[in-house]
Amino acid sequence: MQQKLNPEPTIPGLIKVPPHPQWPNLGPEETEALKGRIRRLLQEQDAVLVAHYYTDGELQNLAEESGGCVADSLEMARFGSDQKAKTLVVCGVRFMGETAKILNPEKRVLMPDLNATCSLDEGCPAEAFSRFCDQHPDHTVVVYANTSAAVKARSDWVVTSGIALPIVKHLAARGEKILWAPDKHLGRYIQSVTGADMLLWQGSCVVHEEFKSVALERIRRLHPDAAVLVHPESPEAVIEQADVVGSTTRLIKAVVEMDNREFIVATDGGIFHKMQQLAPSKILIEAPTAGEGATCRSCAHCPWMGMNSLQNLEEVLLNGGNEVVIDEPIRKKAVIPIRRMLDFAREQGTNMKNRGNA
Questions:
Q1: What single string gives the DSSP state of each residue in 157-205?
Q2: CA angle at residue 210 from 128 to 63, to 5 degrees?
């Protein structure tokens, strides 16, 4: 089936990528003292810390040490919903904080920096996207989690990279035509695997867009026994070289379970922290972003994820600022497709267990 693309330009100019933040270098004693103060503040405020795999390693450590969670965006959403804590502190990017608030309107949701956005989110403005949907009323609207609350409110389904394939396969089996946003590479990959009839919004991630296929071929020749792990937000020519294509959780699992000693990893470098924790004997090699046409706008690390630090985490807990607020009419609409995804994931998990017990 031929891939269909949105013919209209969707991004008014280039996404403005911020410089990578420069945080003060702290010694081991200073770091532990700061983490101790944050743990006390979390306890005092009945707060739980939720961090993404792409954030700084010390934030990931603190989340786990304090009874919080380090996960991909799907597990972050699940974890936040299951918590009894009155406050959720989300270390990640803005759509993750918004998702936590959409699912937990009664809770206070804080972020270290509300300006920590996402190039996929920025490249899919709600008004332009809504007009695009209106032009294709016969399509089921499926949006990636990396979108604003307003875009989610316009959708029928929200998906993460970990569950997009089974959901799109389910919709395609019902004969539904799909309008997909915002990541064109992930959409193309899903369409190629499922054969679904998909109309693609033309967005991309500044991190994954930079991985270079020719440079990857060269590094593979230098490490012929290395397994290549690729996130599906990457360009097609990079995905075609992968041994494993999948979500952050899937790629981490591959490092732990595969027999290879070396791995070339094409996703945000923040994931190396968890990979190295779980598989300390494995050698991890960053997939190249250098080569012909390279700009190194991200250098394999999301600058918006880099806006999260121990320093501004402590600050937000001290001053109570950076609270995520969503207009209630938008929240009520956005929660429907998110709940639909979570219910589908729960049902899939139950079915897998039942098949396993059969």
A1: EEE-TTTHHHHHHHHHHTT--EEEESBHHHHHHHHHHH---EEE--B--
A2: 85
**Among 83, 98, 91, 97, residue whose Cα is nearest residue 151:** 98
The rounded distance, in Å, linking the Cα atoms of 151 and 156 is: 10
Q: What are phi and psi of 135, to 5 degrees?
A: -75, -15
Pure H helices in 287-327: 310-319
Residues 129 and 199 in one domain: yes
Express as a percent the part of the chain with pLDDT over 70. Answer: 89
Give CA separation, 253 vs 45, 210, 274, 277, in Å. Answer: 34, 24, 10, 12
Amino acid 122: pLDDT = 93
For position 253, which CATH number holds? 3.40.50.10800
Number of domains the chain contains: 3
The pLDDT score that the predictor gives to residue 298 is 42
What average pLDDT does range 159-179 have in this prediction?
A: 96
Q: Identify the H or E element spanning 91.
A: strand 87-91
Residues 34 and 105 in one domain: yes
90 found inside a domain: yes
**Cα 289 to Cα 325: distance, rounded to the nearest angstrom:** 36
Confidence band of 351 (pLDDT split at 50, 70, 90): low
- Please give the structure tokens belonging to residue 322: 């950076």
Confidence of residue 18 (pLDDT cuts 50, 70, 90): low
Supply the range of the domain harboring residue 199: 120-204
Euclidean distance between CA atoms 88 and 322, whole angstroms:
12
Evaluate whether residue 49 is within a structural domain: yes
Q: CA-to-CA distance for 142 and 157, rounded, in angstroms?
A: 5
248 and 311 belong to one structural domain? no
Separation CA 257–CA 245 (nearest Å): 15
Q: What is the CA radius of gyration of the chain?
A: 20
**In this predicted structure, what is the pLDDT of residue 354?**
41
Rounded Cα–Cα distance for residues 96 and 93 (Å): 6
So what's the pLDDT on residue 30? 92
Q: Looking at the structure, do residues 89 and 49 belong to the same domain, yes or no? A: yes
Examine the pLDDT at 353 and tell me if it is beyond 50. Answer: no
Question: Does 358 reside within a domain?
Answer: no
